[in-house]
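Limitations
The structure tokens in this dataset are predictions for the assembled complex, not deposited experimental models. Users should treat interface geometry with appropriate caution, especially where small molecules or nucleic acid strands are included. An illustrative entry is reproduced here so readers can see what is and is not provided.
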Amino acid sequence: MITIFINDAMKQVEQGASLTKVLEQYSLENDIQLAAIAVAINNCVAPRATWHTTQCQANDKLELFSVVAGG
Amino acid sequence: MLTIADHQFQSRLFTGTGKFAQSDLMLAAIAASESQLVTLAVKRLDLNTGSDNILQPLRDSGVKLLPNTAGARNVKEAIFAAHLAKEMLGTNWVKLEIHPDPKYLMPDPIETLEAARILCEQGYVVLPYVHADPVLCRRLEEVGCAAVMPLGSPIGSNQGLATETFLKIIIEQANVPVIVDAGIGAPSQATHAMELGADAVLVNTAIASSADPVAMGHCFAQAVNTGRQAYLAGLGAVSHQAHNTSPLTGFLNE
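Predicted assembly:
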């Protein structure tokens, strides 16, 4: 297992886990619609098309974003 | 018909989605306003507050979504927000706004111009929110912005067209649509902006903070339409002196 951070919260994931797998697990745990979010890894936007080929590394900082009301 | 980039709009009223008491009220007010373009913001997911769940109903309503970069304080943050929004919404349209000062929310012209240049190069349809600065608006047009969005007065202030003199110059010079954004607090002010020749206005607070947002949305729809029709009809000339509209001596035999 390795430690990563999702929106500042520590999380243990399997070594070599894909971003898709990590996000699917996280979305189930937290009732999030993955279709409506964007993800950045270490301050770089991770395009959806790369999620399944991206392997999480120890100490990666994932940030999840969504749209909200605004002017 | 208003055309921005390759997209046509029948309504010249754009609306923001912020500050409404409830999502249902926001959706009803937007429907009443007949707006076809609405703004949204990008925010880091907060598990404690949950999501607004506004995206799907907005998509279902058929309006075009315009994500903004509010919260960005510089070029880098604005580009990051635009990239996130594109991932989330699948749109390359972005309302570019960079206002580091939280008190007056004045847009930073230097950061905005540079971010606009980069985002245009990356293929984004950029609609920058700026002060009513005619020189800056020309520069933004030169770097490829699809429209310019000069402010009437500070965001959310409902002060109306404090920048009228400069809006007139921007409208006269622009070769891209001019959308008066921010500060429009009453339908009469929206009418006035349209009478000046603005291509569209963006309204949020005036509708959202009304006691009856749905009725106010409808009022703004009428106001924008009236202002546009008046502009097309052509306003009469303004004169310092009086000019009689009736014969003054016809029945007195003087």
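Some entries come with short summary sentences. For this one: Strands of chain A lie at 2-6, 9-13, 37-41, 44-45, 61-69.
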